[in-house]
Amino acid sequence: MKRSARLEIVEKLAKQREDQAAQALAQVRAQLEIEGKRLQELADYQTEYMGYLDKQGAAGISMQQWRRTQGFIDQLADLAQRQQIAIDGWLAREEQVLEKWRLLYQRRKNIGQYITKLSIEEVLAEDKKEQKMLDELISQRFR
Fold it and tell me: Which of 25, 62, 72, 110 is a good FRET partner for 7, with 20 to 30 A between their CA atoms?
């Protein structure tokens, strides 16, 4: 078995690792999208309740009702802040996974280029060997 053929197994394994990293990256990005939607929902709720509080305040609202609504708005703001921290964590994880994928991609690409180089060298060596054999046959015939 030629060296290039043996190395194709290594390339196949490198491709599998790269694919696994790509899947992990896709999962992290999907989770980031989910977390971003949750943050948007919290912001929407906060805006909605602030509008409700403004309307009720203009129409006349009890102090107790105002405090409860404002307390709920404050809770939403706190949740939104926590959600942003969670998103920041996912963004950091995405960067790590992306960097790992890049390294694995580059490694597989380098292995592929090396295999191509070896294949060319093997073909050239075979051609040279074949040419040498033909030259010997021709020189033996004419002796």
Answer: 25
Domain that holds residue 68: 3-141
Residue 46 maps to which CATH number? 1.10.287.1700
Beta-carbon count within 10 A of 11 CB: 18
Contacts of residue 70, defined as CB under 8 A and 6 or more positions apart, other chains included, come to 53
End-to-end CA distance of the chain: 37
Kindly report, residue by residue over 53-105, the tens digit of the pLDDT: 888 877 788 889 889 999 999 999 999 999 999 999 999 999 999 999 999 99
Number of structural domains found in the chain: 1
pTM: 0.76
28: enclosing H helix or E strand: helix 3-59
Residue 2: which residues within 8 A CB-CB, separation 6 or more? 118, 119, 122
Q: Token pair of 127, please? A: 């051609």
